[in-house]
Amino acid sequence: MIEKLKQNEELWDLFTKKEEYNRIFSDQYNRFPYYLSSQRNVFDPGVSRFLVENGLHPEYPEGKKFAVCLTHDIDVVYPEKLCLIIETANAVAKRNLAKAIKTPFSRFNKKWNPCWNFKEIMELEAKYNAKSSFYFLALHPGEKDFNYKIEDLEAELQFISTHGWEVGLHGGTNLTIALKI
After folding, report:
1. Cα–Cα distance between 31 and 104 in angstroms, integer?
2. More confident residue, 43 or 81
3. What three-state secondary structure class fits 144?
4. Nearest-10 Cα torsion for 173, 175, 180, 181
5. At what angle do helices 154-162 and 118-127 cross, to 10 degrees?
6. Which of 89, 107, 110, 164 gives the lowest tally of CB atoms within 10 Å of its CB?
7. Which of 147, 153, 152, 170 is nearest to 80 (CA)?
8. Dihedral of CA 110/111/114/116: which sign?
9. Measuring CA to CA, which residue among 160, 147, 86 is closest to residue 118?
């Protein structure tokens, strides 16, 4: 079926996102900007339609009509200082004294940190009999997008994994991938 897909140049280019390679212009994160894409109709599942029309018949658990893949890219676990200032100011404006006092210290106290919510996410998903995948950055200080040391999350990674959720890595902005098909 892949050979048949390759014969349809327009769909093959969409499937492989060919336009993202050998680009002339990149955004501030060295990514291909969506606004330059010739393939901007995200509501038209062209490749999926082609595959189904050519014999692909996906089967979902328990005969369901569709499936959902829940994922979380964990880019930030320590709120930025400006965000903390804004959150504190909002709490003061709303006369929420407890939040106004806790927010500035949320970078140091996991219980008060709104980004340190892995267990809450897992509890919510468990209510709906769902399990997701958590993708963490493994960057070093000084690298673009660095916010946390992956080693500092060892206990959380262990907790997530031992309770049946998936843990994986997700690339930073300096990651280069070569597509070879």
Report:
1. 33
2. 43
3. coil
4. -50
5. 10
6. 164
7. 147
8. positive
9. 160
Tokens of 23: 């680009």
Q: Tell me which residue has tokens 């328990």.
A: 62
Residues in the chain, how many? 181
CA distance 121 to 7: 43
Radius of gyration from C-alpha coordinates of the chain: 21
Which residue type sits at 120?
Answer: E
Q: What is the DSSP letter of 30?
A: S
The domains of the chain are located at: 2-63, 71-169
Q: Which residues of 133-167 are buried (b: 16+ CB within 10 A; e: fewer)?
A: ebbbbebeeeeeeeebeeeebeebeeebeeeebeb
What is the pLDDT, as a whole number, of residue 176? 46
Residue 91 pLDDT level (bands cut at 50, 70, 90): confident
